Amino acid sequence: MNSTKALATWLTRRTPEQLTVLLEERGLPHGRSDAADPLRLAELLLTAPSVRLALTGLDRARLQVLAAVAVLAERRYGPVADAAGPALTGFAGRRPGGWAGADGLEPSERAVERADLAAALGPLGARALTLLDDLAARALLLPPHGSSLVLPAVLYRPSGGLLGYGRPAEVLYSDAYLAAQVRLVEDSLGLGPARSREEAQRGVVALLRDPATVREVVAGAPEAVVRLLGSLAAPGLGSPRLSSGYFRSEDTGPFAKYRFPPDGSGDPTVAWAAARGLLAPAGPGVVELPYEVGLALRDPSWPLPFEPDPPTAVAERDGDTGGDASTGHALAEAQAAATASASRVEVLLRAVAARPLTLRKAGGIAVRDTARLAKEIGAGEAQTRLWLDLAANAGLLAPHREPSPAPARGRRPAPAPAAQLLPTARYDTWLAASPAARLLPLVAAWAVTPEVFTREHGGPEVALTTPQDRTAVPLRRSLLAALASRAGDAGAGSAEGGHPGGAGNCAKGNATTRVPGTDTHVQVDPRTRQTDPLLPQRAVPRAPGVTTTLAAPPEEPLPPGEPPP
Known about the structure:
This protein has 565 residues and is mainly alpha-helical. The chain has three domains: 158 residues, no CATH class; 158 residues, no CATH class; 148 residues. A hairpin with a 6-residue loop joins strand 9 and strand 10. Helix 10 crosses helix 11 and helix 13 crosses helix 14. The longest helix is centred in the middle third of the chain and has 32 residues. It is globular, with a radius of gyration of 25 Å. The two termini are 44 Å apart.
């Protein structure tokens, strides 16, 4: 019996209450005709969009268990071919798309034993086994639910988001490069010269598909390059991407093409790897490790991450002994910080209104303009970038471009003027509200967008080109729910100070391991990895004629006094 039929049989044994919970998790109406047909319902539950929606409801530990099963299956049966990896969305500005399908892959043929999972996760393996029943109830582990563990087919593929692979090199090169860039990579690898761009690209891809050759190239790389590639090749949730402003582009649209800097400027580590095809552009300010490179560099003995306990927040102050005095002190500090934040954003918006910020062709705000604005408002550059991003996502700032003057008869049209960032009509209403009401749309924007606004990556930090993290929205919503559940006036929102907001970054523990084909041991820091958001994405609204990388604001403006959704 194949996995679809096995799942259909399992569905017939579920109680009405259990089926209702499953349908709600997958966003399926209870009364639709598909729900009455077990086989059709099983087919729906195994589709990539349905599986993707189910993953959004999982915590880190359950996602890591699924990822461990997928990695163990890959180690035992080998990698699964994938025609195309996950399409970039949001800040990266690539064309929309979904995950690759799972046609022709029978999940039961890639089963992993429970004992192997427990052994692979070491001392924490027993705790991982306690999560399997819940994953089975969500139809993310498929029947027969015995000693073998079977995932939906899409999760075995590189595009499933659990294995930590990038897209195939052929897809990345075709999307990002013109012929000149492909030939530069070809020349750096000692190939060619080929007669055409297609022949040159086939030669480069064929070389990268040979793991031994990739390891040989990496073995001759500078130590910083080996560390970077090793960290990106480590198993992890999402795709191996890195923020980098190395590549240049004259466009930010979905079909933008990228070129190497003509003077060789930029990050030398990324430059060395990109010149040899080991990294490729994946959008404005983003590079990606191709699938073939990750496959060649991944060590089969790489430790599988599993952190069953959520991170704990511990606050310590000199003289704090707990109790009402400590709580009152913390509340007073929170209220003061909230009021100060609202005031800082007001000063920032007034400064932008007086002197609009110009949007770069590559997306975002120029670093020098951000530094100038930070000096004007008396804040740090990181804080200024945070408030710019939040204000843009909250609909308080938006791009605007003046229309080009009509050309005189017989003359070419003048180039379109640069787009500028200006306060929106909502700004006037926001300005008249109390500090608490002013913070509400900013906190709401922070809570529903997957951008990690304060993440630093070592290169130029550009406002409005922030990386995304799949875990950001669930974590922020959980944080707000926890704050809202506190009794009495423990939250700062009850006072004039409003709700303090912030942006955090979930960092997984580091691991040290050897990069295959080299004698180098690297510390794997998953914070260097940019993950694909598994959450459904919205289209980014833009002003007429303006192309930028602003993230989507909430669908409806939040009037003063309305709580976040």
